[in-house]
Design goal:
The protein is an alpha/beta fold. It folds into two domains: 147 residues, Nitrogenase molybdenum iron protein domain (Rossmann fold, 3-Layer(aba) Sandwich); 116 residues, Nitrogenase molybdenum iron protein domain (Rossmann fold, 3-Layer(aba) Sandwich), CATH 3.40.50.1980. Helix content is 36%, strand content 14%. Strand 3, helix 4 and strand 4 form a beta-alpha-beta unit. Helix 5 packs antiparallel against helix 6. The radius of gyration is 20 Å and the shape is globular.
């Protein structure tokens, strides 16, 4: 399959969006902006049918900058955790660089501001095509209402607190700091991740390595094995039980618990369901 020529792609005369973040790409489509999406990463896979013809420009960490530049985006969407600062700096150094929209949701409530952010850029900006402004306003309003409803329904009050280890990688084991999106999402059902550590705005400290000899591992009550970025399976459950001998171990959908944007609506419902099944 050949990539579309930029001059013939939808939105070629005006708005052209490149998204380098999987969950943001899904949000772009959910806001009705598929016709103006001209670039995505290979990890931007949802919604599959809508993205089938959108050119790929490498991965989130290894963006093919030359290909992205040829696709001539007017706006590029990036994320502090997902993309490298060097990538953003390189795009800014292009002749006539695109507008770069930086995202960094660190908790489920930030989904509301994320929708509002894209709404301001594409639903209110005077240089945005009239049709784009109309569809974004409509879809943003509906998505905001859905997020508000699920956020209100997902609260820690009255729930049994649990100490949780959320594993995202194996060899070495890696987990999430308490100031990450995933940890703050889990806290909405009174599931508190260990270690009790903050990772800061960016960098490796946001995803601590677990050696296996930490004393706090004995306090873990629930181990959650994520389906991404490492694809944990039932074959890894015994290893996790050996790591945390006093904990229950279960596989969880990492996209529902880790992707922000429109997936957070289903993610919050999913979280309530697994908490209820665990007695929380």
């Amino acid at each position: 399959m050949h990539d579309r020529d930029p001059s013939s792609a939808p939105g070629a005369a005006g708005l052209r969006i490149g998204s380098l973040v999987p969950s943001i790409t899904e949000l772009v489509v959910a806001l009705g902006l598929r016709d103006w999406l001209v670039a995505r990463t290979g990890f931007c896979i949802h919604p599959a049918e809508a993205l089938r013809e959108v050119p790929k420009v490498g991965g989130t960490k290894d963006v093919n900058l030359a290909k992205l530049q040829r696709l001539a985006p007017t706006h590029v969407l990036v994320n502090v955790d997902e993309n490298r600062r060097e990538t953003v700096d390189a795009i800014r150094a292009w002749p006539n660089p695109p507008s770069i929209i930086v995202t960094h949701p660190t908790g489920p409530d930030d989904n509301l501001e994320l929708v509002a952010l894209l709404g301001r850029h594409f639903g209110e900006a005077p240089d945005s095509p009239p049709r784009a402004r109309a569809v974004v306003r409509e879809h943003a309003a509906a998505l905001t209402q859905a997020l508000q409803r699920e956020l209100a329904a997902t609260q820690p009050d009255g729930r049994v607190a649990r100490s949780v280890l959320y594993l995202i990688w194996r060899d070495p084991w890696m987990t999430v700091a308490r100031d990450t999106y995933i940890s703050r999402l889990l806290a909405r059902v009174a599931w508190h991740t260990l270690p009790d550590a903050r990772g800061g705005v960016s960098g490796a400290a946001r995803y601590p390595v677990v050696r296996g000899d930490e004393p706090w591992l004995a306090k873990v009550q629930q181990v959650l094995l994520s389906s991404e970025p490492y694809r944990f399976s039932a074959a890894h459950q015994d290893e996790a039980r050996a790591l945390c001998p006093n904990a229950e171990v279960q596989l969880v959908d990492g996209e529902l618990l880790g992707w922000y944007g429109p997936r957070a609506v289903a993610g919050l419902r999913y979280l309530r369901g697994i908490a209820a099944a665990a007695g929380g």
